[in-house]
Amino acid sequence: MAVPATVAAVPASLYVGDLHPEVVDHHLFEAFAEFKTMDSVRVCRDRVTMKSLCYGYVNFKSQQDAIRAMKLKNNSYLNGKVIRVMWSHPDPSARKSGRGNVFVKNLAGSIDNAGLHDLFQKYGNILSSKVVMSGDGKSKGYGFVQFESEESANNAIEKLNGSTVGDKQIYVGKFVRKGDRILPGYDAKYTNLYIKNLDSDITEALLQEKFSSFGKIISLVISKDDNGLSKGFAFVNYENPDDARKAMEAMNGLKFGSKNLYVARAQKKAEREQILHRQFEEKRKEQILKYQASNLYVKNIDDDVTDKELRDLFSSCGTITSVKVMRDDKGISKGFGFVCFSNPEEANKAVRSFNEENGQENTVESPLCTATNRIGWIFNSSYPWWISTLLLS
């Protein structure tokens, strides 16, 4: 199709996101058919399942038409869902860097993608705006706005953070990727408490009565199953962070009903995962340090020697916590193995005993070898994967 003379013939591509799973190429084509220089469309799919990835691209021969399409179609409905239309960025590094990306929370339920865009558009050119929705199409109260420039993002944060929109005071700050978020310290301000070890007959009214003495409660809920029965835990959200801290310090460990309550600051899933990962790493390092001087490497082992025979040979030197003859995928011995003692002293004893008995280069008669037999130290740095797996399993 010829490009009209009045339209600049500069190709452009638009990204179309938040598509309904049932939207296919021809639906996208029909949605943008009014723009005469539209060149092609594509809904992206999983290579294995061929299911829609819920986003696609619309390519234009004219940049002018692409600009018009973005203005008219962004936040419009397609198959019952509001779609997002923005410039396509072939370089993912710009998108993943978070540059110009703003996080907004405590949004009123009435604010949708278009409302969020309208709220921020006077601060700079917006590449994308999105309010995160639940499965039933209701706002989760937070969203993201990505500006073309970092300067625009900083300006929006300065002007809008702490302002009242609708009936809520919103928070506006720089978007921080999950892996870069820092865990709150002891002095962190919080209002939401997590409470567990609740008796099944504890009601929200009883909990309200018990916890309201520390300050004004904004919300309180006991988590329940599909049958309406208590799951034994609840959340209490205070208006004032100081009241939340007082309640936690006073109520944690206190007997309520037949059980002692556990009361702590409510944590998001990402934060809990980060804490657990850190605890695991600390425990792993502790185990490595504990056992690195207790683990021996034994080589020149005869092919038919078993784990039990290796254990029996070394058991006279102390308490053995683990023994392993290393084998290939077919179960054939690789001629070396590991013996881990309960403490470094026992491992030292084994090294001295066997090296003194066998000498450094002596040929000996032993069920473990038919040639030179030597026993020496091995530290975790030499075989970190196998040793750490052995010690922590």
Automatic annotation (TrEMBL):
<keyword id="KW-0677">Repeat</keyword>
<feature type="domain" description="RRM">
    <location>
        <begin position="294"/>
        <end position="365"/>
    </location>
</feature>
<dbReference type="InterPro" id="IPR012677">
    <property type="entry name" value="Nucleotide-bd_a/b_plait_sf"/>
</dbReference>
<comment type="similarity">
    <text>Belongs to the polyadenylate-binding protein type-1 family.</text>
</comment>
<feature type="domain" description="RRM">
    <location>
        <begin position="191"/>
        <end position="268"/>
    </location>
</feature>
<feature type="domain" description="RRM">
    <location>
        <begin position="12"/>
        <end position="90"/>
    </location>
</feature>
<dbReference type="InterPro" id="IPR035979">
    <property type="entry name" value="RBD_domain_sf"/>
</dbReference>
<keyword id="KW-0694">RNA-binding</keyword>
<dbReference type="Pfam" id="PF00076">
    <property type="entry name" value="RRM_1"/>
</dbReference>
<dbReference type="GO" id="GO:0005634">
    <property type="term" value="C:nucleus"/>
</dbReference>
<keyword id="KW-0963">Cytoplasm</keyword>
<comment type="function">
    <text>Binds the poly(A) tail of mRNA. Appears to be an important mediator of the multiple roles of the poly(A) tail in mRNA biogenesis, stability and translation.</text>
</comment>
<dbReference type="InterPro" id="IPR000504">
    <property type="entry name" value="RRM_dom"/>
</dbReference>
<dbReference type="InterPro" id="IPR006515">
    <property type="entry name" value="PABP_1234"/>
</dbReference>
<feature type="domain" description="RRM">
    <location>
        <begin position="100"/>
        <end position="177"/>
    </location>
</feature>
<dbReference type="InterPro" id="IPR050502">
    <property type="entry name" value="Euk_RNA-bind_prot"/>
</dbReference>
<dbReference type="GO" id="GO:0005737">
    <property type="term" value="C:cytoplasm"/>
</dbReference>
<dbReference type="GO" id="GO:0003729">
    <property type="term" value="F:mRNA binding"/>
</dbReference>
<dbReference type="InterPro" id="IPR003954">
    <property type="entry name" value="RRM_euk-type"/>
</dbReference>
<protein>
    <submittedName>
        <fullName>Polyadenylate-binding protein 7 isoform C</fullName>
    </submittedName>
</protein>
<keyword id="KW-0539">Nucleus</keyword>
